[in-house]
Amino acid sequence: MSHLTSAQIITDSITPYGPTTRLTSIYVVFPKMILGERNRHRGFSLSDRSSRAVPPEKLIQEVRNDPAMPAKFRRRTKGMGGGEELTGEELSKAKDTWVISADEACISAEDLLKHDLAKEIINRPLDPYIRMHSLMTATRDVWLNFFGLRLDSGADPTIQVLAQKCFEAYKQSTPQTLHPGQWHLPFINENDWAILNEGKPIPECGPGFVINHPALRLSAARCAHLSYNDLETGQRMTIDRALTIYDKLVGSQPIHASPLEHQATPDKWYGYKNIYDHVNGRGFWENPHQHGNLHGWRQFRKMIPNEAVAPLPDGYEL
After folding, report:
1. Model pTM score
2. C or N terminus of the chain, fewer CB within 10 Å?
């Protein structure tokens, strides 16, 4: 039994305009108990496994086989956090108690399962003992802020382990330089690219064209698939299946656009707009309105009409 936290670089890119534009997508697995702390870092684009989507039978088996648990068991102390770590027999007893509580949660979920309730109800007792599968995408400064706060000795030990895994992967990775018109596309491999585009680059953004390119739709659909399953299963998804999922994401109202936040192409940087900018050392981006949370990049989501405006359901008026 362990907390089994992991981090894997999926796509790592950078523009010609400097190190702050490094854009990195990391696939992580971590205990759901720290999800709230992770979500405080609002600069990330996220695609997370959902307790509303995964079959209860699968999560019950996961918890029974290897429940997620805290990275450290520490003594109670004043204020936030904990004191010294438990060791020896005390530590063993604390872990045993945690495992017993996880097993009791499984029993509760199985009882709810007998009533044919929705996944969103049955899976909730399991939340403290399951793991998130998540794609986290951000530019350099967002990652550095995450590392600075969560590698600190005062951080929760469980999220500290997540930060350590991400930091190790980030430090060992070398980003690929992309130019405007080339795309950061998580979950697109060489075989996919050969089938979808015959090895040719996606043309630069044009009205009504690039948002329909199958490589973009496939990447978005595989990001969306993390709601239901893990990385390996998503990678096996057929292209036809992925394009069907994409159509469900953006083909009706309300649009479900968060899986489209991970794909991006470098924006064009112009050194100076006029002599005053030159004096003050300022330049400008061509399409800053399309950056969203990705500094220096044109985010796929921002190319979709009405991506941030969900119409009110029938019966609701302002």
Report:
1. 0.92
2. C
